[in-house]
C-alpha cells in the first residue's frame, strides 16, 4: 500500500484548513479557559476518586492531541499539556453532532479544549468524558511518526520544538538545566550575594583570552564587542562597594564548534570580597554537590558510564605536580621550554603559542592530563604569564593563586584570588599587548578604565566562573554541549519549497 509523502500530507492538511475556514470555524480562538492542568486533575483523582462522576464536578482541560483512536461515533484521544498526559473520551451523543463533525476533521498535533466529568474505563484508567470540545489551534504540519520519532541530531537541533514534543528525555534535560540554575542562584542568594547585570556590548573585550564578535553602533559611530566575559565589569562593582556579586550571563566567543564548545554559552561568574581562591574552592565543592543533590537526588552520579563522587573534599593538586605525576613529564623539564616542546612533538601535540613557557605548559596539560581527571579535581598554581588577572602567590612568585576545576575530563570552573594592584595589572596588560602584537589575537587589550577603577582601591577579592552548559552536561549525563543548549549554532540549512 502506498503511503502519503510528507508533501502530500502537508497539502491535505492545508486543504483541510481552507475547508474549516470556509465553514466559518475559528482555527485560533483564545477564549477557552482551563480550570486545571492535567497534573492538578490527576492529583484530584488521587485524592478524591470516589467523589468523581461523569457529570460532577466538571473540569476544563486543554492540550495538544498526541494520539487519536476512532471508533465510528466515538473516539479516545490522548492530550498533553506542560504538566503531563491524560486520556479523554469523545462521544457523538454527548458532545452533539456539530462538535463531533468538527472533531472528525481534527488531526494529531491539534490543540483542543475539553470540558467534562471523569470516569474509569474497563482497564481502570481515569478518563475525561467530554461534554464539550473546542478547537484551540489547528496544526498544518504533521508531527513526526510516533515510533520512529525524531532521531537525526541535525534535524533535532534545527527543529528543537519537535525534539521537545517527541522526545521526553530531551524535555527532562532542559527541565534539569533550569533546576541547576535555580539551585545555584538560591545557593548564592542565601550567602548574601547580589545578582547583577553587566553590559553584553563592550568597547573593549576583556576578562578572558578569546576572539570576540564585533558589531557597530551607528549612533555612537563606534565598534563594540559582544562580551567574552563579564569579569572586568563585575570587579568594578566590587570597587563600588558591592562586595558579593554574581551574574548568570551569556558570553560570546568567536571560536570553533565542538561537543564542548558553542560560540554563545552561559556562565556563572561571582566575586567575593575578603576571600581567597581557597575559600572559593570550598564554596564550589558545596555549591556543585548541593546542585547535584537537588537535581539528581544524590552527590554520587553516573556520567557516560563513570561513577563520579561529588562528596567533599575534592582532590587538589598543583599544575606542575599534575604534569609530572599524571602526564608523565619529567620534573626537570618544567622550566625548560625547548624540552617541553620536544615532549609535545614526540606526543604529536601541536603548540601554536610557543612564545612563553606558560603557554607550552598549559597546552601539554590540556592533552596529557585533563582527559584523565575524572573525579573532581582542583588544579592550582598556574603560571603568572597565563593568568593576567590573577594575584601572584606570596610564596612562589612565578605562579598565581588560581585554580581550575576538572570533572569527567573537562574544565568546569576557573577561579582565583584577584589581582588588585593597579601597577602590577598594568604590567600584565602590557605583556598581553606584546603577545597580541606578536600575533596572538586572543591576548588581552589594554583597559585603562579598568586600571583607573583599581586605582580607587579594590579590597582583597576572589572570583570564579562556572560553565553552566558543561555543568548541565555533567548532571544530566549528556556527552555533547549541543544537547543542553536549546538552540545550538549551526550552519544554515538549505530551504526547500513546500
Overview of the molecule:
With 498 residues, this protein is an alpha+beta fold. The protein has two domains: 6-143, Nucleic acid-binding proteins (OB fold (Dihydrolipoamide Acetyltransferase, E2P)), CATH 2.40.50.140; 164-327 and 369-483, 2-Layer Sandwich (BirA Bifunctional Protein, domain 2), CATH 3.30.930. Helix content is 33%, strand content 24%. The protein has helices at 6-22, 38-48, 92-95, 97-104, 153-158, 160-166, 168-189, 231-239, 277-296, 319-325, 337-346, 357-368, 422-437, 448-455, 468-475; strands spanning 59-70, 74-81, 84-91, 111-120, 126-137, 194-195, 201-202, 214-217, 222-226, 244-252, 264-273, 300-303, 306-309, 315-318, 377-380, 402-407, 410-417, 461-467. Strands 6-10-11-18-17-16-15-14 form an eight-stranded mixed β-sheet, sandwiched between helices. The protein is elongated.
Brief digest:
This protein is α+β, with helices and mostly antiparallel strands. It has two domains: 138 residues, OB fold (Dihydrolipoamide Acetyltransferase, E2P), CATH 2.40.50; 279 residues, BirA Bifunctional Protein, domain 2.
Low-confidence stretches: none
| CATH architectural name of the largest domain | 2-Layer Sandwich
The main β sheet shows up as:
8 strands, mixed
Strand composition percent: 15-25%
Mean pLDDT: 94
User: Could you tell me the radius of gyration in angstroms?
Assistant: 29 Å
Annotation, overall tally of beta strands = 18
DSSP helix fraction: 25-40%
Ends apart, CA distance between termini? 24 Å
Please give the order of strands in the largest beta sheet. 6-10-11-18-17-16-15-14
Amino acid at each position: 500500500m502506498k503511503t502519503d509523502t510528507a508533501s502530500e500530507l502537508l497539502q491535505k492538511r492545508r486543504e483541510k484548513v481552507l475547508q474549516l475556514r470556509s465553514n466559518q470555524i475559528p482555527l485560533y480562538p483564545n477564549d477557552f479557559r482551563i480550570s486545571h492542568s492535567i497534573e492538578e486533575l490527576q492529583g484530584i483523582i488521587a485524592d478524591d476518586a470516589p467523589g468523581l462522576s461523569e457529570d460532577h464536578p466538571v473540569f476544563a482541560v486543554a492540550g495538544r492531541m498526541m494520539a487519536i483512536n476512532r471508533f465510528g461515533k466515538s473516539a479516545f484521544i490522548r492530550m498533553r499539556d506542560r504538566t503531563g498526559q491524560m486520556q479523554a473520551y469523545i462521544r457523538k451523543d454527548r458532545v452533539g453532532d456539530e462538535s463531533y463533525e468538527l472533531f472528525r476533521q481534527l488531526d494529531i498535533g491539534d490543540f483542543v479544549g475539553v470540558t467534562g466529568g471523569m470516569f474509569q474505563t474497563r482497564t481502570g484508567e481515569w478518563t475525561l468524558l467530554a461534554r464539550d470540545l473546542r478547537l484551540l489551534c489547528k496544526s498544518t504540519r504533521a508531527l513526526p511518526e510516533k515510533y520512529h520519532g525524531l532521531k537525526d541530531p541535525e534535524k533535532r537541533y534545527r527543529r528543537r520544538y519537535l525534539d521537545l514534543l517527541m522526545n521526553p528525555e530531551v524535555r527532562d534535560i532542559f527541565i534539569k538545566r533550569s533546576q541547576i540554575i535555580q539551585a545555584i542562584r538560591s545557593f548564592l542568594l542565601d550567602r548574601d550575594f547580589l545578582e547583577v547585570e553587566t553590559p553584553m556590548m563592550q568597547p573593549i573585550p576583556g576578562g578572558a583570552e578569546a576572539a570576540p564578535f564585533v558589531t557597530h553602533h551607528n549612533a555612537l559611530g563606534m565598534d563594540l564587542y559582544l562580551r567574552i566575559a563579564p569579569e572586568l565589569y563585575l570587579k568594578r562593582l566590587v570597587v563600588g562597594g558591592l562586595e558579593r556579586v554574581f551574574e548568570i550571563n551569556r558570553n560570546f566567543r568567536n571560536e570553533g564548534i565542538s561537543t564542548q564548545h558553542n560560540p554563545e554559552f552561559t556562565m556563572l561568574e561571582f566575586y567575593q570580597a575578603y576571600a581567597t581562591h581557597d575559600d572559593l574552592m570550598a564554596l564550589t565543592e558545596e555549591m556543585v554537590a548541593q546542585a547535584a543533590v537537588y537535581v539528581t537526588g544524590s552527590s554520587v552520579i553516573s556520567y557516560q558510564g563513570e561513577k563520579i563522587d561529588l562528596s567533599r573534599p575534592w582532590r587538589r593538586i598543583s599544575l606542575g605536580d599534575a604534569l609530572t605525576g599524571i602526564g608523565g613529564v619529567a620534573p626537570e623539564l618544567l622550566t625548560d621550554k625547548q624540552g617541553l616542546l620536544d615532549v609535545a612533538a614526540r606526543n604529536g601535540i601541536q603548540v601554536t603559542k610557543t612564545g612563553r613557557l606558560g603557554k607550552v605548559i598549559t597546552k601539554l596539560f590540556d592533552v596529557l592530563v585533563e582527559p584523565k581527571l575524572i573525579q573532581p579535581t582542583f588544579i592550582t598554581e598556574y603560571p603568572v604569564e597565563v593568568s593576567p588577572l590573577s594575584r601572584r602567590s606570596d610564596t612562589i612568585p612565578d605562579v598565581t593563586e588560581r585554580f581550575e576545576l576538572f570533572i569527567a575530563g573537562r574544565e568546569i570552573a576557573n577561579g582565583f584570588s584577584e589581582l588588585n594592584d593597579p601597577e602590577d595589572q598594568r604590567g600584565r596588560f602590557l605583556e598581553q599587548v606584546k603577545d597580541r602584537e606578536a600575533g596572538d589575537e586572543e591576548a588581552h587589550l589594554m583597559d585603562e578604565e579598568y586600571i583607573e577603577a583599581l586605582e580607587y582601591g579594590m579590597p582583597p577579592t576572589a572570583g570564579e566562573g562556572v560553565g553552566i552548559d558543561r555543568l548541565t552536561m555533567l548532571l544530566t549525563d549528556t556527552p555533547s554541549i549541543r544537547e543542553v543548549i536549546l538552540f545550538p549554532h549551526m550552519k544554515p540549512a538549505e530551504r526547500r519549497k513546500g
